[in-house]
Specification:
Blueprint: E1 2-14, H1 17-41, H2 53-66, H3 68-71, H4 75-93, E2 110-113, E3 122-123, E4 128-133, E5 137-142, E6 150-159, E7 162-174, E8 185-190, E9 196-198, E10 206-207, H5 215-233, H6 243-275, E11 281-285, H7 289-292, H8 307-319, H9 322-335, E12 339-343, E13 368-370, E14 379-381, H10 382-398
Parallel strand pairs: 8-11, 11-12
Antiparallel strand pairs: 1-5, 1-7, 2-6, 3-4, 4-5, 6-7, 8-9, 9-10, 13-14
Helix pairs in contact: 1-4, 2-4, 5-6, 6-9
Length: 421
């Protein structure tokens, strides 16, 4: 028996100057349309007089007819902006996401192609293919991987190294045999010195991410950032930046993009290696990385302390790809018939996994954990100790018949509010 999986495929796009100009105009129009819809929807928010989605749809159609620069956006792409905005509010009312807000010019430009029939995907040879982009024409893509079995839509995305086409679709894969979830549970702790620490006894307990930049690349990035800071001092706020500063930003963006690709590749390899160990249940911490990496700058009236140290910690956390590993491990365990549970992270680093004694001073430093209980006295790596605590909590959670990819945190049982359908 086969299963149908939703997957995306990403391809580099080769655009001419005219095509790149047209796609950039569409991306700018889509971002501006989002801001216009947000302004129109929240204009009378103080009196809770929200327009209906049908009224917003009618205003979008009228604006595309009367405003030339907004008319460059295809009608289906404009409708997709409204659908995405509506879904953002649905997520907000459901309590799963934050409130929708404005999109600045610094956000990644994107244009949706929701209708798969408009793409007319063709493979020219083993390396290149073509797609039809509305109001742009036929563009070439680098087909380094096969497309999904059934294409449902696409999205043009602008990144630091150029434009990419993301194909949304469905692939058919054999239905995996469910793994025995009553067997041993693997506890996985995410850290900075060691990216992943596990309770696996038959092999290496640590999975460490290699350096995402070589020493030469790191040195070049440092020089480019200093150059950008120097060039920015000569820039007058409110005026366009110079061509030299734009070139420096482009070089920095290319290095950052290379670093991100290497980080994403490691996240894929690490998650695949964990699933390949064959455990029936995997337990990780339910971390809020966004809250953990908040700035400590504070406000003018109440400035923060240790701002530079906290900024360095934030960079170290984001460089370890914790969220990407979580997301990739989620779909890979589900795809292979395993169970992934997320447990509460409180006290996993300060609690002895052997006797349960909890005291902050038991963690002598980053690497060493020494139990203060004289009857126990366990000494070992602090990350391994945390992984064992995560495994114990994961076993407790699975014994409660938790659903796949569940969490031990409380969930909101109240149905979400429905507004202005």
């Amino acid at each position: 028996m086969d299963q149908v999986l939703k997957r995306c495929r990403k391809y580099p796009v080769l655009l001419t100057r005219a095509q790149e100009k047209a796609v950039s105009a569409q991306a700018d129009a889509a971002r501006t349309l989002w801001n216009l819809v947000h302004a129109y929807y929240t204009f009378h928010e103080h009196s809770r007089r929200y327009p209906s989605w049908g009224q917003i749809d009618a205003e979008i159609k009228r604006a595309r007819r009367e405003i030339d620069w907004l008319g460059v956006l295809p009608a289906q792409a404009a409708q997709q902006v409204l659908r995405t905005y509506r879904q953002a509010w649905e997520n907000r009312w459901g309590g799963t996401h934050a409130r929708p807000t404005w999109k600045s010019r610094r956000v990644r430009g994107a244009v949706d192609i929701p209708q798969a029939r408009d793409l007319n995907l063709r493979r020219l040879n083993g390396r290149w293919g073509t797609v039809q982009v509305p109001k742009v024409g036929v563009v070439k893509i680098r087909m380094h991987q096969s497309p999904p079995d059934r294409i449902t839509g696409a999205r043009l995305v602008r990144e630091a190294t150029g434009w990419f086409l993301v194909l949304r679709g469905e692939v058919t894969a054999p239905m995996p045999a469910p793994r025995d979830r009553d067997t041993e549970t693997l506890g996985v702790d995410r850290g900075i010195v060691h990216t992943l620490a596990t309770t696996h006894d038959a092999g290496p307990a640590f999975i460490d991410q290699p350096a995402t930049l070589t020493p030469g690349e790191a040195k070049r990035l440092y020089r480019l950032e200093r150059r950008a800071a120097r060039q920015k001092r000569a820039h007058t706020r409110g005026t366009p930046i110079s061509n030299r500063l734009a070139c420096t930003y482009a070089q920095i963006g290319a290095l950052r993009a290379r670093q991100a690709r290497r980080r994403y590749d490691f996240a894929h390899q690490a998650s695949a290696a964990l699933v390949g160990l064959g455990y029936g249940t995997y337990a990780i911490e339910n971390l809020s990385v966004t809250n953990m990496t908040r700035s400590a700058r504070g406000t003018i009236t109440n400035p923060g302390t240790g701002v530079a140290a906290k900024a360095g910690l934030n960079r170290a956390i984001t460089n370890q790809a914790w969220t990407q590993i979580d997301r990739l491990l989620t779909y890979k365990t589900e795809q292979d018939g395993a169970l992934l549970v997320r447990v509460r992270p409180h006290g996993t680093s300060t609690t002895c996994h052997r006797c349960g004694n909890n005291a902050p001073e038991q963690r002598e430093n980053q690497a060493t954990f020494r139990c203060a209980n004289t009857a126990c006295g366990w000494v070992g790596n602090a990350d391994i100790n945390a992984a064992h605590n995560i495994r114990t909590r994961g076993q407790e959670l699975t014994s409660q018949d938790a659903e796949p990819n569940g969490t031990s945190q409380a969930v909101k049982r109240q149905p979400p509010k429905r507004r202005h359908t």
